[in-house]
Amino acid sequence: MSISLTDQDKATLRTAAYGAVSLMAAAGAVGKPGAHRIATDGSIALNSATGLVGRVLAEKSRDIALDGKSVADLADTVLPLLTAAVGLLKQDPAEADNFRATVIVAIETGAQIHKGEPSPALAAMARKITAALDAA
């Protein structure tokens, strides 16, 4: 099945996916070094996506808008966009699953920078991101 996405739909997907990585980086910055590594590893994971999701995430654009002065501000933007992005892709359940799996891999990759268990802040943020993905 082929999904037709508008430029705004594509911007929503990109902002949601890269926003999830940004949330993990912000949560990882709380009390520990490594936010840059979380962002880098998470972005690499997003760039390894395949299918329609991979093509949308790989497009060069300047439409990712992630503003805010706090993690809470960022979460207020990103978490609803994650739900919206999955909703946009539900016309093709395989692509909706692909988006969800891609974001999960990216946030799990970021959480792996700390050997062993992720920090409590990273684990909590990962749960919030997963809940937003599952809310659609």
Plain-language structure description:
The protein is mainly alpha-helical and 136 residues long. The protein has helices at 7-28, 35-47, 51-58, 71-89, 93-111, 120-134. Helix content is 71%, strand content 0%. Helix 1 (7-28) runs antiparallel to helix 2 and helix 4 (71-89) runs antiparallel to helix 5. The chain has one domain (7-134). The model has no long low-confidence stretch (mean pLDDT 89). The protein is globular. The chain has six helices and no strands.
Salient structural properties:
mainly alpha; globular; 136 residues; 6 helices; single chain; 0% strand
Write the layout of secondary structure elements.
Elements: H1 7-28, H2 35-47, H3 51-58, H4 71-89, H5 93-111, H6 120-134
Considering DSSP H and I runs of 4 or more, what fraction of the residues is helical?
A: over 70%
User: What proportion of the residues form beta strands (DSSP E)?
Assistant: under 5%
Overall pLDDT level: 89
Structural class: mainly alpha
Low-confidence stretches: none
